[in-house]
Write a structure and sequence with these properties.
Layout (H helix, E strand, L loop, with lengths): L5 E5 L5 E7 L10 E2 L2 E2 L14 E4 L10 E6 L16 E5 L4 E5 L8 E6 L3 E6 L6 E5 L4 E4 L12 H4 L2 E3 L4 E2 L4 E3 L10 E8 L22 E9 L8 E12 L2 E9 L6 E3 L5 E8 L8 E8 L2 H7 L12 H4 L2 E4 L2 E4 H7 L26 H13 L21 H4 L27 H7 L11
Antiparallel strand pairs: 1-2, 2-5, 3-4, 6-7, 7-8, 8-9, 10-11, 11-12, 13-14, 15-16, 16-17, 17-18, 18-19, 19-20, 21-22, 23-24
Amino acid sequence: PRGERIILGDVGEGDREEIDLIEAGKNYGWKYFEGLREASPPPPGFVHQPPLYEYAHGPGEFRGDSVTGGVVYHQTDPGHGIPELDGLYIFADYATGNVWSLDLDDPYNTVQRLFGDTGIITFGYDPSNGDVLYGSNKNSAIKRLARTSEREFPKTLTESGVFSNLATLEPSPSVLPYAPRVPFWSDHAVKRRWFSVPTPSGTITYSRDGNWAFPSGSFWVKHLDLELERGNPATARRIETRILVKNDHGIYGVSYRWNESETEAYLVEDAGADLIVEVDTDPGPGQSLQEQILRIPSRAECLACHTPAGGFALSFNTRQLNHVAEMGGLLQNQLQTLSEAGYLDAPVTGIGLLPRLARADESDHSLEFRVRSYLAVNCSQCHQPGTGAPESWDARAHLTTEATGIIDGNPENNGGDPANKLIAPGSENNSVILQRMMGSNGFARMPNL
């Protein structure tokens, strides 16, 4: 960097990430500080060197969970590169995919979000021309930081052509409804889903236990409503509609936010958005109004969960579709419908013997199986080999519980208590997976979107 400064990205534990200017003899606070927050009382005489910049954990335009330290952008050729970034420190967050610039010479250390990507683990320079490069472990790619024209997406949901009637959410003829057996956690949002595959130009490669493979041009739609009086469907308000698209390079997602009159949904910018909705959580005598924060994910945050290892389209697999639901005007097992309609690369037989997941309220299944189903749906897209996430446990449904490593397994972060395990038999307080689900005892909530 200019002036031979050393800039460090310092990954926090459970609350803050930070960028530090490294100077000889300074103490940057571990383990007593995360950013500016005191994590534990420091010893007498301790002098803490504060960070240049800190940010909190969680989803959002200026938030994340694991900082990736970067490099300073140098404009070496006036006719090449991005001159407005000259002298700025470029860094990212591995989890949320946010890429930022930090002005090292500004006394306020101004930070701007530049764009989003996924799985960024390192930054460097192209030795041939000094361009900034970065590497991603999500798609095993090295990418160049360059100015590009903004990708054009339909500005409204109407323009997308997904629905033939926006008022009723009647899908276009090539778009069919489907329903997963176990819905993802969505903080009380009510969801409806549709899909489209470009038949006859492509078919889905079926697998009993593994991920299905989808032809380029396939897409999935998820629409979210929120009941303003919890438990009263008549009070549902349209919030957001998401579209996930498979292309030759992987997958991408965009979101549309509904207007107050619920007549149209408009494209949300790349950084995503946060909505605050007032909800009556306990309808009846004496209202129980609470503000609920709803996160419309950034395009990079979409990719944080829709991973290659997770199969991209997380709810479109054997275990999730192996049950009766309406699809294409037929009320029967969805695997049967897909097979008979020619969506799959080969006929599926013995459907009654194929595995499926179980909802939490299906008491005819064991509690262990229902818990495993929930974890498979909400956690396995990251918690399995090959995702870049810590491999302390594996949430995939086809494994035995012993093979998942969750019982008495050691978490990546035990919160400073060695008694904390992934699942500590007989102890809710020491079971980190449960504490993460509740966002309690100092653990960030998971899933985080």
